[in-house]
Design a protein that fits this description.
The protein has helices spanning about 1-30, 45-55, 70-75, 80-85, 105-110, 115-135, 145-160, 170-175, 180-190, 205-230, 265-285, 305-310, 330, 340, 365, 370-390, 405-415, 425-435, 435-450, 465-490; strands at about 35-40, 60-65, 90-95, 135-145, 200-205, 290-295, 320-325, 350-355, 395-400, 455-460. With about 500 residues, it is of the alpha/beta class. It folds into two domains: about 10-230, Rossmann fold, CATH 3.40.50.300; about 250-490, P-loop containing nucleotide triphosphate hydrolases (Rossmann fold, 3-Layer(aba) Sandwich), CATH 3.40.50. It has a five-stranded parallel sheet, with helices on both faces. It has a five-stranded parallel sheet with strand order 7-8-6-9-10, with helices on both faces. The longest helix has 28 residues, at about 465-490.
Length: about 500
């Protein structure tokens, strides 16, 4: 028995050394890693995380707990806290209880209603697939113990005043209803056990054996990830690309750019709409409704002007304008959606994006800043991210401000002549005009593939700035009013 125990310790030591070496290699190859520890209460997640950490360089990982929300987290979509903590290239994020809490513990307690369960599973699957497609490795560990073993461990902890605090009322309740909790957990594993992010269910009765299995499992997964990265295989395309001419005569061609407004009518409507938006903003805050508005369009189309009029009468404490430029070094080290997750608004607040995550399927696609597989995957990833925002109660609207090529040239020349506006025009703006036709194809495909019922694209006829601004403000006000009525109706039920 002693020899067997000694042999296990030697094997564990070797596996820990292997894991430490693999961590260094993952850092060199810039592979981000998520390690999720889920399972039954009392199974020893904390103990096993501690053993795992002993094998790793502490400068290369962060540890989080997902068992409860901070005030900040509770005001945002459920997956927000995990998205903003996503590991940068070469780093490891370790979670003691992960995003699976929602479909496990929260479901058991009735916090997640049964009518919300399917959507919650879909959000999780989409989130994981998005991370994996972006190069992140996800290792999902489920530590399993029997009802009898759990009760035994609780009894031991409760027997000492120094450890009794570790057993909560909720955990004792889950032990009393172990069968129900097991059924929920089994369904969770079954519905989310995917080839790109499989579950590793580990018998956690013996702590040393569990530690060996956990560390070996993580090491094996990292080893395979390194082999795949070094093989240099491109991600697979999940759909056959359509011929380019499929989008030559698309949605943009249908925009009637002759639409306009006279100045007197514009001024009258603007004042009325801005006052209306001021009132609606207060209602959004009262009902804790988050709003996400995205603005895209041609250079000089008037995005800034529309945003300026939109925010004119809003309470500045309740909105944020998020201009999107080329990603900096920190942003480049993360998944391309990470920087946008960081600006998701709190409940009752508004986030306005001046250029958005759709850069992936426009400028990054056309300039070759990402692979063809990357931008093809992005349509699905973006749709799924926006769906999660909507499932979390947000109003999501996206505006494409359309102008023709002649109008853009006229505006460019006006800017160059005006000293106060020269800063708005760059050599890059002129260069982008040479790729106008390529952008038309990309934008038409984007509009068709990512305009959904709950997160629609609104094409704004923008040759007349006055007309464009009024259409934007009217659309936002009408959508806010509709959303407020829906929420108030639901509250009365």
């Amino acid at each position: 028995m002693k020899d067997e125990k000694k042999q296990k310790k030697e094997v564990l030591k070797k596996e820990m050394e292997r894991l430490g070496s693999l961590q260094r290699e993952c850092k060199e190859e810039k592979i981000p890693v998520y390690l999720l520890f889920d399972g039954y209460d009392g199974a020893g997640k904390g103990v096993q995380i501690g053993r795992l950490m002993q094998a790793l360089d502490p400068r290369g990982f962060d540890v989080y707990t997902g068992d409860k929300d901070t005030e900040e987290e509770a005001l945002r979509p459920f997956l927000w806290r995990f998205a903003v903590h996503a590991p940068a290239a070469g780093r490891i994020a370790i979670y003691d209880t992960s995003w699976y809490r929602g479909v496990q513990a929260d479901r058991f307690e009735g916090i997640l209603k049964e009518k919300q369960v399917d959507a919650a599973f879909e959000d999780i699957l989409a989130f994981e697939r998005c991370l994996v497609d972006g190069g992140t490795v996800i290792v999902k560990l489920f530590l399993e113990i029997s009802e009898k073993e759990q009760a035994k461990r609780f009894e031991k902890l409760l027997g000492s005043k120094d450890t009794a605090w570790r057993v909560t009322e909720k955990e004792r309740e889950r032990n009393v209803h172990y069968g129900k909790y097991k059924k929920i957990s089994d369904e969770m594993i079954r519905r989310t056990d995917m080839p790109y992010a499989p579950w590793y269910v580990i018998d956690a009765k013996d702590k040393t054996e569990t530690a060996l299995t956990v560390i070996k499992t993580v090491a094996d997964v990292l080893e395979k990830a390194l082999e795949k990265k070094r093989a240099g295989k491109e991600p697979e395309l999940f759909e056959a690309p359509l011929p380019p001419d499929r989008y030559e005569k698309g949605i943009l061609a249908k925009a009637d750019l002759t639409k306009s407004l006279k100045e007197a009518e514009y001024r009258k409507k603007l004042a009325k709409l801005q006052k209306r938006l001021e009132t609606l903003h207060g209602e959004l805050y009262r009902l804790r409704i988050p709003v996400i508005l995205g603005f895209e369009g041609w250079d000089a189309a008037g995005k800034g002007g529309a945003i300026k009029r939109l925010t004119s009468h809003l309470d500045p404490r309740g909105y944020k304008v998020c201009p999107t430029a080329s990603p900096n070094d920190l942003e480049k080290s993360h998944h391309y959606l990470w920087r946008f997750w960081n600006n998701v608004p709190k409940a009752g607040h508004i986030a306005i994006f001046d250029r958005t995550w759709y850069g992936r399927v426009m400028v990054e696609r056309i300039e070759g800043f990402c692979s063809e597989a990357d931008w093809h995957h992005a349509y699905r990833e973006i749709n799924e991210m926006e769906t999660h925002f909507v499932n979390s109660g947000a109003l999501v609207l996206k505006f494409w401000i359309q102008i023709d090529k002649d109008e853009q040239e006229r505006r460019f020349n006006d800017r160059m002549k005006n000293p106060e506006k020269q800063w708005k025009i760059t050599d890059e703006d002129w260069r982008n005009r040479e790729k106008w036709d390529s952008y038309v194809l990309a934008v038409n495909e984007m509009l068709e593939k990512t305009s959904t019922k709950d997160a629609p694209w609104i094409v704004v006829e923008g040759n007349s700035k006055w007309y464009a601004r009024i259409k934007v403000l009217e659309t936002v006000a009408d959508a806010m009013e509709k959303k407020i009525k829906e929420v108030e109706k639901d509250k009365k039920k």
